[in-house]
Write a structure and sequence with these properties.
The protein has 243 residues and is mostly helical. 79% of the residues lie in helices and 0% in strands. It has one domain. The protein is globular. The chain starts with a helix and ends with a helix.
Length: 243
C-alpha cells in the first residue's frame, strides 16, 4: 500500500477513534462530567475535532496547501507584524502587546499543524509494521503504542496549549480582531499578497473563530472545568493505550 493510501486510511481510522472517544454515553460511563459538559457540548467538541483538527481525506489537499503558507508566517511573522504596526488604531488599542497577541494566534495555528504531523508519524509506523488497512480502534491503538510515550505526551501537551489559548476569551477576541485586520489589509494590496496567502490567513481565522465557539455562552468557571476535563480525557487515552 502506498504512503498516500496509508495516510488516507490512517485519517479515516483516527477519525473513527475520535468519533468513538467523544460519544456522550461513553464519556458519561467513564467520567464524572461537569454539568455544563452535556450531550450538546460534547457534540460541539467532537465536531470541532472532526471538522478542523482531523478533517476527512478529501479536504486535506486544500488544507495542507493553506498550512504550508501559514507555516511561513509562523516561522517568520515579521511580514505580518510590519502590517500591524501600520495600523494606528491597533497600536493605540494594544500598544507594545500587539506582536505578543499575534504570536498567540500563530501559536494556536501551529497546534493544528502538529495534529497533521502526528498523523504522519502514525503513517510511518503503519508502513514499518506493514499493517494492512482498514484501521479500526485496535489497529490505531497498535500504531499509537508503536510511538514513543514521549511523542504522544508531546502531542497531548500541544493540544493542551491549543485549548488553553482557545478558552482565554479575552485573548481570542484580540487575536480574531488582529487576524481580520491582516486579512483586510492584505486584500487591499493584491500586488504584494497573493490570493493563496490571504486564503491561508482566512483559514486560520476560521479555525480560531470556530475554536472560540467551543466555550461560547459558558461562564468562566465552566470554561475552566471543560478545559480541564477535555485534557483529562486526552490524557486518559494515553494511559489506556500504554496500559
Amino acid at each position: 500500500m502506498s504512503e498516500k493510501e496509508t495516510l488516507k486510511q490512517v485519517i479515516i481510522g483516527y477519525r473513527q477513534v475520535i468519533e468513538e472517544r467523544y460519544q456522550y454515553d461513553r464519556i458519561q460511563e467513564k467520567y464524572e462530567l461537569p454539568a455544563s459538559f452535556d450531550e450538546e457540548r460534547v457534540a460541539v467538541f467532537r465536531n470541532y475535532f472532526l471538522e478542523y483538527m482531523y478533517p476527512p481525506p478529501e479536504q486535506r489537499e486544500e488544507l495542507d496547501a493553506a498550512f504550508e503558507r501559514l507555516d511561513e508566517y509562523i516561522k517568520q511573522p515579521e511580514k505580518l507584524i510590519r502590517l500591524l504596526v501600520a495600523s494606528s488604531r491597533l497600536l493605540f488599542k494594544y500598544g507594545r502587546h500587539l506582536p505578543k497577541i499575534l504570536m498567540a494566534g500563530m501559536k494556536a495555528l501551529k497546534s493544528f499543524r502538529a495534529a497533521n504531523n502526528f498523523e504522519h508519524k502514525l503513517v510511518q509506523s503503519a508502513m514499518q509494521l506493514e499493517l494492512e488497512s482498514p484501521y479500526g480502534r485496535d489497529e490505531i491503538n497498535a500504531l499509537l503504542r508503536s510511538l514513543s510515550r514521549k511523542d504522544i505526551e508531546a502531542f497531548i501537551k500541544n493540544n493542551e496549549a491549543l485549548f488553553e489559548t482557545l478558552h482565554d476569551r479575552a485573548l481570542i477576541r484580540k487575536v480574531t480582531e488582529i487576524v481580520q485586520y491582516l486579512i483586510d489589509a492584505m486584500k487591499k494590496r493584491p500586488k504584494l499578497y497573493s490570493k493563496e496567502e490571504v486564503g491561508a490567513l482566512e483559514l486560520g481565522h476560521n479555525l480560531i473563530r470556530e475554536g472560540d465557539a467551543l466555550f461560547d455562552k459558558l461562564n468562566k468557571e465552566d470554561q475552566q472545568r471543560i478545559f480541564e476535563f477535555v485534557i483529562q480525557i486526552e490524557k486518559g487515552i494515553l494511559e489506556e493505550v500504554f496500559s
